[in-house]
Amino acid sequence: MRFLLITDTFPPDINGVARTLATLATGLKQRGHDVEVVTTLEAGPEEAADAVKRHTVMAMPLPGYPGLRMGFTTTWQMQALYETFRPDALYVATETPLGIASIRAGNKMGIPMVSGFHTNFQTYLEDYALPGLEGVAQGLLRSIHNQTARTLTPSTDTAAMLERWGIHNVGVLGRGVDTDVFDPARRSTALRESWGATDDTPVALYVGRVAAEKNLELLTRAFARFREVHPQARCVVVGDGPKLKSLQTEHPEFHYAGPRTGSDLGAHYASADVFVFPSITETFGNVVLEAMSSGLLTVAYDYAAPRLLIRPGENGLLAAFDDEADFLLQCEKAATSWQDSAQRLAARAAARHLGWQRVIEQFESELITVIPPAPAKDPA
Fold this sequence. Notes:
Elements: E1 2-6, H1 16-30, E2 34-39, E3 53-56, E4 58-62, E5 65-72, H2 75-85, E6 89-92, H3 97-109, E7 113-116, H4 134-145, E8 150-153, H5 156-165, E9 170-172, H6 189-194, E10 203-207, H7 216-229, E11 234-238, H8 244-250, E12 255-258, H9 262-270, E13 274-277, H10 286-293, E14 297-301, H11 304-309, E15 317-319, H12 324-336, H13 341-352, H14 357-369
Parallel strand pairs: 1-2, 1-6, 2-3, 6-7, 7-8, 8-9, 10-11, 10-13, 11-12, 13-14, 14-15
Antiparallel strand pairs: 4-5
């Protein structure tokens, strides 16, 4: 089969959506399919020679978020690409002008399409000085996704939300984790020492975009609560984003590791002890799965991936959704149990069976299912 994936973000971008789509594209290719990608950024020098072929379109930075881009193309340009590549099905992972033009072209040419809802952008509007437009955004998203045969999203929470909006034929495509990259065995004494931590020093970690929608104000309060219990504790932030400089200025006591990828990222996870994730805007939360696979005690809100993966008191800690007082209480508990090897081993065990292969196989099935059967040949 020939599949075309359309997305504004793809490696070398560093975020959960880009990594997920790269894994899915590579997985389809390894299963014998012809796969190409339409995106907004050229491949980086470190990209493997056998990576999927990409077509790049013009793009501009998202307002207030220069690290991410919005792709632009025309329906005619996408039709020309479809004429050349002849895809059997499209996966449209973006609701920007790139995705809208791609869907229009697909409908004009009768190409089966599956769309993906990867990011709760409608919840970001207030954070980026556009309050009161969430209802408008929901209507636009409903219109876009209902032009495709199927909409995939990573959690049952998000699927239920999309159905309430009136989006039809919603399915859940979960996420996986590379348990070799995210492995407690990557723990590094030297890395911990660079953070000022010894074996007896607890390290609290955050990994993700350093952006308003990640609830950074609560993150700083959570780190502070952690240090109330252990004044010598180290707090580490891994990632980049529009709020990084202001966070560094306001909280120089934290260690800022910048963006990390691959085994280097795995070492940063494994060298910490507690993972603090206060976001309330996730469709899934890949970083929670990565942290648990790395053997960390995770504190998160009770929704999306944490609800699916964490059994409170057994392999992590959950706070009632959007209850800041409860979240800070769970951080206190984590600070007193950061050396609880039973919970950390249980976290690793919960993640070990959640590899990517089952997700890739389901994704392949979802794409094939929307392709109509070939017409029967006339016996004459």
